[in-house]
Write a structure and sequence with these properties.
single chain, about 375 residues, alpha/beta, Aspartate Aminotransferase, domain 1, 2 domains, seven-stranded mixed beta sheet, three-stranded antiparallel beta sheet, 14 strands, about 15% strand, globular, binds pyridoxal-5'-phosphate
Length: about 375
């Protein structure tokens, strides 16, 4: 059950509130699995695959062990490997580019658009060469990347699109749900995501039956018939316990997304008022005209980010920096030979972004208190 916490604190993220409401349903579904004893690839995974693929408007869904593996298996299924290049953004979670390196291909970074934090479509074309096999656009913070431009660029070059939709389940672009637009769409059910399990989990959605079948085999050691292996695969499965928890939570996803959007609108209105009066100096997140943002994060920008975060912390308000370092400057990617200044927009974002609390259970009153604290700081 929910731990008692100081009434005056507003955590940056709090799963306890959600789990408390769903407690009985969750216990029931978990004890059902303990009773039936089927833990790997059973009816709960199948149901979740149906739920998520249908919800996204994609033909197939394949449950896998994590969002990171969803990216890795997508690249593997497309037979991308050593000698190939994959374009992506340096302003994302590590796994986006990590998956490219894990298959032996080279991550090629393209800087971001400062308004959306997503890949800058005007800079993609010059990074394309004969080795370019795919692009991984990330719908960062739940805001869809500019897919129309990405399509028009990739079409003429025969480049595959793998959507990193880990933060964007339920978002849409020109009325199409993110994840259903590319060759594959990759989701994560990490506990803090908009639909989160009680551990690791992920899903790939696709409209391509051959890719779907290949990925289905890849997640079970490349084997169609038990103990007979057609090619080298992996062990990357979503387990029944996680799938059962996710099926319970899935029923609330639309309602939770609506609430996230209401909270974002409230932040927008209250903060905009203060900006217009010249009382605060922050930049607000943008929702592009043709897109539906699901506000996995509500992320503002300010040059005084660290001081603001410290001040909020002192007032008992949690906030988070996603991400403090861009991928091209990570030690793990030092072999790529990048340096400071290579991707200036991403580097600047890393020093200026701050994500304020946004989760469905957050109250209007708490949002008002966060805004008051921001105003007091300035
Ligand atoms: C969470 C996340 C991932 C990885 O998902 P895991 O399930 O944690 O492996 C990949 N990309 C982005 C953008 C993410 O936010």
């Amino acid at each position: 059950m929910r731990q008692d916490q100081n009434k005056n604190t507003i955590p940056g993220f709090d799963l306890g509130r959600q789990n408390c409401i769903l407690h009985n349903d969750l216990i029931e579904c978990i004890s059902g699995i303990i009773k039936n004893g089927k833990f790997i690839l059973g009816e709960n995974v199948e149901l979740l695959e149906k739920n998520i693929s249908r919800y996204c408007g994609a033909a197939y869904g394949i449950g896998v062990a994590s969002g990171s593996d969803a990216l890795y298996l997508s690249l593997s299924a497309l037979e991308i490997g050593p000698g190939d290049e994959v374009i992506t953004t340096p302003f994302s979670f590590f796994a986006t580019a990590g998956s490219i390196s894990r298959v032996g291909a080279k991550p090629v970074f393209v800087d971001i658009n400062p308004e959306t934090f997503n890949i800058d479509v005007n800079l993609i074309e010059k990074k394309i060469n004969r080795k370019t096999r795919a692009i991984i656009p990330v719908h960062l913070y739940g805001c869809p990347a500019d897919m129309k431009e990405i399509f028009s660029i990739t079409e003429s070059h025969n480049i595959k699109i793998i959507e990193d939709a880990a933060q964007a389940l339920g978002a849409s672009y020109n009325k199409h749900r993110t994840g259903s637009l590319g060759d594959t769409g990759c989701f994560s059910f990490f506990p803090t995501k908009n639909l989160g399990s009680f551990g690791d989990g992920g899903m790939i959605v696709t409209n391509n039956i051959e890719l779907a079948e290949k990925i289905r085999l890849l997640r079970v050691h490349g084997s169609k018939k038990k103990y007979f292996h057609d090619f080298l695969g992996f062990n990357s499965r979503l387990d029944e316990l996680q799938a059962a928890v996710l099926n319970v939570k899935f029923k609330y996803l639309e309602q939770w997304t609506k609430r996230r959007r209401v909270i974002a609108r409230l932040y927008n209105v209250l903060l905009k008022e203060q900006i217009d009066k010249g009382r605060i100096h922050v930049k607000l997140p943008l929702e592009p005209d043709n897109a539906l943002h699901v506000y996995h994060q509500y992320t503002i920008q300010t040059q005084r980010r660290n001081q603001l975060q410290r001040y909020l912390h002192e007032r008992g308000i949690g906030s988070t920096v996603y991400y403090p370092s861009p991928l091209h400057l990570q030690k793990a990617f030092s072999f790529l030979g990048h340096k400071h200044g290579d991707y200036p927009v991403s580097e600047r974002a890393c020093s200026e972004v701050l994500s304020l609390p946004v989760y469905p259970e957050l109250t209007d009153e708490e949002v008002i208190r966060v805004v008051e604290a921001v105003v007091d700081f300035f």
